[in-house]
Amino acid sequence: DMLVVGDGGVVLVGSTIPDPSRGLHAPFSSIFALSTADLSDWGSHRWVIEDARNPMIVDPDLTVDRSGRVGAVYYSAPQPADPAQLPEHHPGPHDIRVAWWEGGADGRFVEQAQPIVSVEGMVDPSLCFFDGGWHLFTSGPRGVAHFSGTSLTEGLARDRYFQWGQGSVPSCIVDGDSLMVVAQRSGGRGAPQVRRFNAKTQWSDAVDLFPSGTDPFSGGCASPTLGRRDGSWLLFCAVHTAPEPGGQQSRGPKRR
After folding, report:
1. Which of 46, 155, 172, 176 has its CA 20 to 30 A from that of 204?
2. How far apart are CA 135 and CA 157, in angstroms?
3. Distance in angstroms (rounded) separating the CA atoms of residues 9 and 189
4. pLDDT at residue 1 above 50?
């Protein structure tokens, strides 16, 4: 997911699940990031989550509180986990947690002791502060779920009236007096959709981000994330690319 910082820089974050059978021995309790100041030259980073209650950091997203403090929200997964099992199928309640940036020479986040929510099957969290309160969006068994409240330490309550059964992998952004949420559909093969919320209109219907039947990414748009930079919108997606040698299909980020 993406964060646009005050000087026009862009930060994209993600995670990886270790899979020794494929030679993937990734560090635990870490967030991986790409950053750029000009959308041309990119740097890579690994940031440690200190005091992590569980060793696996899955589906991280960056957020900013009312004071400008940067945080990371993620599914905090226990070990051992079956690498072949999707995170949403991990057993037991899923802790969605937040950690706050503390800086330091190598960069680090410190995890809040209490989870934001703990609900079975919830993954892909995205967290925004809007209109005096916190709003958390996740993928769940019935599509995108919405939780809200005024305190992250006291936990957030689920909005039982919010329904978005066709969406998954949500990403939220505050745009003026509106809260926007973009989500993939059709497994990321079709156009992502966006919904808006404000005090007057409540939740809008879902609208495609680009016309039906078009595919500007030449491979669909999975895990979409939106941001504003210098007055223009940025959309990043994970896309399916041409098969690699050996018949394996790769996925990677693209921008429009």
Report:
1. 155
2. 10
3. 29
4. yes
Main-chain dihedrals φ then ψ at residue 22, nearest 5 degrees: -110, 15
- The string of pLDDT tens digits covering residues 173-225 is 999 899 999 999 877 777 899 999 987 778 999 999 888 777 787 767 899 99
Segment 161-178 mean pLDDT: 92
CB atoms within 10 A of CB 110: 15
Q: Is the dihedral of CA 210, 167, 75, 199 positive or negative?
A: positive
Rounded average pLDDT over 20-45: 84
* Vertex 147: Cα angle to 143 and 150 (nearest 5): 165
Could you tell me the two tokens for 9?
């820089």
DSSP 3-state of 35 = strand
Question: Which residue matches tokens 């994209």?
Answer: 12
Task: Give pTM, 2 decimals.
Answer: 0.89
How many CB atoms are located within 10 Å of the residue 119 CB? 16
Residues belonging to the chain: 256
